[in-house]
């Protein structure tokens, strides 16, 4: 009989730490599958719009970060820090290629629609493709045409996933913890892109607390 572990994941597409955290989480899940193969992990994705005040069409990426951090030196230092962390999980982020800081409301609506009808593997493919579109391919994930093209690539109906993209988006509440944010079976939480070993240990602790560790 399968044991179950639910993990709520709070994220935004423009947050590189969320992509890094997703990689760390998957590594932790793989480790759990090796040590406890009878545990079924279910991921519950919750969209958080970090910068809802961005215009619908987005803003120039480099200008946004220059204004946000105050100097070109600060921008280079922050991006170098992120690149280093990303490289440890096999992710290469070229910030120079990213042209726009998008408003992510439409992307979150798209994924929400997909989660209602798609199987987990297909939804994960869509999530991965949306991250890749932004961080690797310099695509504007605030653009409806771009989003629908990605949806079709992942095997979804553009007509179905395109429903309600222009509606206001209500971000999930992390209680001020930012993203990425993980809640394990509703009883233990971690904020930030923690190493896989920390996530794995948290899973084991939660299973043990519930009497589900063999």
UniProtKB/TrEMBL annotation:
SUPFAM superfamilies: Thioredoxin-like. GO terms for molecular function: oxidoreductase activity. Gene3D superfamilies: Glutaredoxin. Residues 7-170 form the DSBA-like thioredoxin domain. CDD domains: DsbA_FrnE. It holds the Pfam family DSBA. It comes from the Bacteria. InterPro entries: DSBA-like_thioredoxin_dom, Thioredoxin-like_sf. This is Disulfide bond formation protein DsbA. It comes from Acinetobacter silvestris.
């Amino acid at each position: 009989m399968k044991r179950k572990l639910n993990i709520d994941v709070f994220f935004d597409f423009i947050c590189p730490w969320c992509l890094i955290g997703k990689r760390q989480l998957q590594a932790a899940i793989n480790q759990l599958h090796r040590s406890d193969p009878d545990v079924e992990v279910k991921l519950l994705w919750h969209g958080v719009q970090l910068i809802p005040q961005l215009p619908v069409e987005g803003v120039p990426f480099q200008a946004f970060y220059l204004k946000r951090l105050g100097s070109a030196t600060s921008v280079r230092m922050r991006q170098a820090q992120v690149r280093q962390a990303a490289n440890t999980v096999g992710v290469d982020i070229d910030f120079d290629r990213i042209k726009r800081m998008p408003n992510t409301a439409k992307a979150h609506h798209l994924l929400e629609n997909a989660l209602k009808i798609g199987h987990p593997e297909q939804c994960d493919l869509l999530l991965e493709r949306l991250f890749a579109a932004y961080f690797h391919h310099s695509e504007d994930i605030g653009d409806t045409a771009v989003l629908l093209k990605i949806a079709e690539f992942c095997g979804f109906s553009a007509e179905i996933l395109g429903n309600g993209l222009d509606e206001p988006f209500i971000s999930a509440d992390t209680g001020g913890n930012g993203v990425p944010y993980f809640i394990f079976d509703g009883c233990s939480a971690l904020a930030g892109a923690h190493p896989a070993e920390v996530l794995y240990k948290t899973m084991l602790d939660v299973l043990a607390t519930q009497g589900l560790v063999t």
